[in-house]
Amino acid sequence: MDDKYLKKWERQRKIETDEFFDLWDWQLIFSTWKNKISDYLISLNPLFKEIIICDPKNPYGREKVLTWQPIKEISEFQLEVQRHFDSWPGTIGPINQYNTRQGELRTLDYLWEYQGDIEKVAAILINASLFTRLHSSRGKYPMENWPSCWCVQKLYEMALAIWNSENKHFMWQHYNTEVLPYLKWDYDYQLNNLHALITYLAEEHALLLLKYYPVVVVFQDKRDPFIEKRLNDERIMQQQKWDEISKLQSECQDKKVKATNSRWENMSRNELEKLVWTKPTVALAKELGVSDVAIGKRCKSMNITKPKPGFWAKVNAGLIPNPKGKPVVTD
After folding, report:
1. What is the pTM for the complete model shown?
2. Which of the residues 47, 109, 158, 182 could staple to 208 if both were Cys, CB 3.0 to 4.6 A apart?
3. How confident is the model over 193-213, as a mean pLDDT?
């Protein structure tokens, strides 16, 4: 591309960009964004949802942790993390199990640093939304209904200057696939002017904050009262469950013992004689819940002849057949 053609192309880009921005400056962009966010009744102060966790092994020495969490799952998330540290104190914990993308975590760092300044928060979110479309190596710019990428690039640079004018941050890496946990991929809208683009991005950020909390996990020595109550209720319910199981097991055992005792107490001579010639007395005693001595005494009182010592050893060795309940004459 020769210099003459390049200069002409640059002039055309400048003209198109100037027409796209018209008389808009950053203050008008921010005001439009903020008004649209307020339509969704979203509060940006505080921006982060604080979650208190107690690590019994290290309640004071742990640094805060930032993460994104679905709003509908926030209570269960806090419960799960507290359960983890109760069971495995001092470990890392499942805090960032939902989002492992480094780009999303870096965005949280930026938002945390400037959380008290809504204007800079707006700029960070705008940059984050545009980064994936403009600069991510895995992103895809929506060419059909969006403005020219150089027009959007100017908006990106304007927002960047608001919160990173001194190049304090390295921004995101080109290989970061996404830097926000939610993006609108609905490109049916014709964004043919800056107002439409800002409105689209503000709606994207509103939906993001309606779906996800930016969360700061703070470690303290005191537990969250609500979470502690939930955990105590769980423990009580679990103990009641085990008590009920133990009670049922005890009742079953009692019924089994009673049935065994009743069988032994009401056993006829023929049944007892058949049993002592079916299995060894020790095994029979265990089955009936009595001692082998008691069986011997009962057999003697009923005039029942028992197999002689060593009889069942010979049966097990295959030297003599199993009598299967029928008395036999032994030497």
Report:
1. 0.71
2. 182
3. 95
